[in-house]
Structure formats: C-alpha cells, structure tokens
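Board notes, transcribed. Complex of a protein with flavin-adenine dinucleotide.
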Amino acid sequence: MSAAIALAQEGCRVTLIEKRAVLGGRAGSHLDATTGECVDNCQHVLMPCCTNLLDFYRRIGAREKIRFYPEIPFIESEGRVSFLRSCFLPAPLHCTPSFLRLPFLSLRDKWRISLGLVSLLFWREKGIENGSALDWLRARRQSQRSIEDFWQPVLVSALNEGVDKASIRYAAKVFLDAFLSHPRGWWLGIPSVPLSVLYGASLVSTLENHQGQVLLQREVRELAVRNGQIVSAALSQGENVRADAFVLALPWQAAPAVMPEEIRTLTMGASLEKLDPSPITGVHLWFDRVVTNLAFAALPGKQVHWFFNKTRTFDGSSSAASYLQLVTSAARGWMRLTKSQILEIALRELQEVLPEARDARVLKSLVLKEPLATFSPSSENERFRPGPETTMRNLFLAGDWIQTGWPATMEGAVRGGYLAAQAVLRAQGLSRKILVPDLAPSGFMRFLRRPEPPTHQSAIRSGSQFTLP
Ligand SMILES: Cc1cc2nc3c(=O)[nH]c(=O)nc-3n(C[C@H](O)[C@H](O)[C@H](O)COP(=O)(O)OP(=O)(O)OC[C@H]3O[C@@H](n4cnc5c(N)ncnc54)[C@H](O)[C@@H]3O)c2cc1C
C-alpha cells in the first residue's frame, strides 16, 4: 500500500492487487460471523518514532485517526496501578522519576536496569551485531528478576520475540529510538477506528485521485517472464495485468510461490523460507458492564501482556458495555493450547488485575491465534532478508521482511514500500527521496546519538522535519 501511494503521488499509474475483500493485510479487520462485530486481526499500536508510518497516514488522510496516549499504566494483581510518563527533565532522563516509582521493581533491580540503560546509551552496533538481547543483558550483569520483570516484558511487546531470541540490535533500537531519545518518542499511538477503516476508503480514494486503481479479491498466481523481465501478472480470475514495473508485496511466506523460478532459486527465494515466524494471540472479550476506565494497560508478570479497552479507544459505540482485546506476543506455548484453554487463562488473568471483571458476564468472546504473525527479529533471520531490488530489472520487493533496518512492524512495512518505490523510480533514472527522517533526538540525546543512515539506500526526503503529535 505504501509503495502504491508513494508511486502514484510521484506520477505513476498504479494498480494495487489484493487477494482479500479488504485492505490492511496482517494489520486488517474482518466482520466476524460468530460475534457479528468488526474485529481487528489484533490490536495494532505505533509510536511517534514510526515516522514513515505517520507520513503514510498523512498521505492517505488517516493521520487524525491515530490518538497518542502520553502514559503507560501497569496493573498488577489486585488492581494496583502505576504509570510510566515523561516529566520536564531532558532526554534521556524524562522517564526517570516515574520509572523509579514503579512498585513492581525492587530498588536493587532499578539500579541494575539504570546501569543497563546507561550502557545502551553508549551501545555501538559494530562487533556485537550477532548476539541476542539475553547475551548482552547477562554480560551487563542484569539480574534474572530485572530481565523477567523489565527487559523481557518491554521487548516481547515491541519485538514480538523473547530476549533469548531477539537480536540485541533490535532490542537496542526499541530503547534508544522509542524510550530514550525523545520525551514523546514512546507515546502509544492507537487507531480510533477499526484497521480496515484506517486503511480502507481513504487509501482507495487517494489512489484513485492519482489515476490509480485497487483490485480487491484478486489473487496474483504467477508473474510471466519474457526476455529476462516481467511482462504481466496472472490473476485468479483469469485476468492478466500488464505493467512496466512490478512490486511484489506479499507476506514473506507467500512471496516465493509467486516469484519467477529464476528469482526464487537463484537469489533469495530459498532464504525467505528460512525466516522463522513468531506468533501472536489476541483474545477479544465483550462484557455486560464497564470493567475498567483505562484505555489500555500493561500487565507485568502475566501471560497476557496487554489489554486494550476498545470501548475507550474507538470512536463510536460498541455493542457491549466493555469490549477488551488482550494481547500475548511471542505466544509459542499458546499455539499448542485449545481456544477454550486460552480463553480460560486470559479471563482468569484479567480478573486478577481488574476486580470489576470478576462479577461481569462475558457476552461474547473470540480467540485469534496468529502462528505466522511476524518473522522473528533474531540475528540469524537478518541474513535472509533481501533488499528491494532483484536480478530482474523491473521486479521489486516490498513488505516488512525486506531489509529495512526495522523489525516486522507497520513502520517496517511502510519503509519496505517506500524503499521499493524509490528503487522503481531509480530504475527509470529518477532519483527520488521518499523515506522520511527518523525522529530527531532531543535533550542530551542530541549529543549522544546521531540518527542512523537508512538501510539500503541513501535517499531521505530532505527538508521534511518530522513533527510530533
Ligand atoms: C497479530 C498481529 C499483531 C501485530 N501487532 C502489531 C503492532 O501492534 N504494531 C505494529 O507496528 N505491527 C504489528 N504487527 C505487524 C504488522 O501487522 C506487519 O508487520 C505489517 O502489517 C506487515 O505489512 P506487509 O504489507 O509487509 O504484509 P501484509 O500485511 O501481510 O500484507 C500482504 C498482503 O498481501 C496479500 N496477498 C497475499 N498473497 C497474495 C496474492 N497471491 N495476491 C494478492 N495479494 C496477496 C495479503 O492478503 C495481504 O493483504 C502485528 C501483526 C500481527 C499478525
């Protein structure tokens, strides 16, 4: 979608082909037959450091549908609530007072964690690129408790991977880009509409206003090759779409099946199959009464990592007094459980932290297991991610899985699309800057950290200062 919009706005006539009836892909929603509700595949959140994603929302007129929340509530058993928030201190000190007040971490662990965060400030990618976050934390003498109660919960939610598998490169990115560089870099951005609305009509009309079109419910089956380049895409309904350039933006597991044989076997197709997935589970619960007034909360020490109160985050009415969505990331253990076992654990944990939920009646429930939610952000997987260009002059790759420098996120997907768009234009002899700059560090971080150069190309849109929410 991001490649399509960027190229259309650069003057190309674009056809976007989508297999499903709605746009959004993994960040999509569907009308659920059993509950009759429009249900997001899973809660999707972003942060102000997702500068390309916010640029994409601006391009399709959806930016106003993202609401940013300036504090993160943590709820422990019996309902004790504490908050992480920024104060007047300059970055990277802005969260220090609220961090020191978090009751579920001991003073000793706060001291160790602070030392760990300080060494992250001086973290340099060179030399330790291949290690896991856990190796790095152990080498920094982080206690088991600080790993379990702090590093693991933050990283598993941000990266959809545990500290034992997640690369230190991405773990460092989470803390440096989001939490330490800017007092507002970590605010949670939550869509105020279902994902299919966020990515739906406004994207279609933006594309149509630029002479483009969206073809829904059309599956690309094959790309036809003649004289070493792609000439057309064969669709499920028997149509053939001809074009000068093709951007393949399928999920990483689906892409090899559509790739021409010479690309699949000679370049990275085989490697794509080696990308390890990491699952996510979403549990949706509709209650007969209000069970919390919080819009969302992190649940330290629980198997359910977050709840999101859709009755509060969505504009418009809901069919129940409370509609909550519970998220468990890197939920490998849960893939073996039945949906009713998952529901039981999730409800029990929710009732432990929200006393109001104990007497409430569950009107409807839904468990969505996503075994292939994202690829794992491990150092090993990094080797299998290709760039946007292929050995075919007019075939380009996009998606969260190409080399973006980001883990599998909506920001990574938009970066992938923008990189592909730049490559398409470059192949036409046009040097265009589509990627936007990272969020500029503020306070003391201006001296400690320089924005990283973008991966896989050098072009960044100049003069576009990213503005915070
Ligand atoms: C449960 C879950 C929770 C997540 N939470 C977050 C979050 O909170 N924040 C965040 O930033 N990211 C989150 N992510 C990750 C994010 O959703 C993805 O990184 C992002 O959506 C990937 O976008 P993409 O365009 O690369 O791929 P996709 O979204 O997978 O898009 C690929 C598209 O290709 C279509 N397609 C497939 N085959 C064909 C074919 N043959 N012909 C035509 N079309 C085809 C698919 O239908 C799909 O629409 C989450 C993902 C999941 C699954």
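Residues 456-467 have pLDDT under 50 and may be disordered. Residues 67-188 form one domain.
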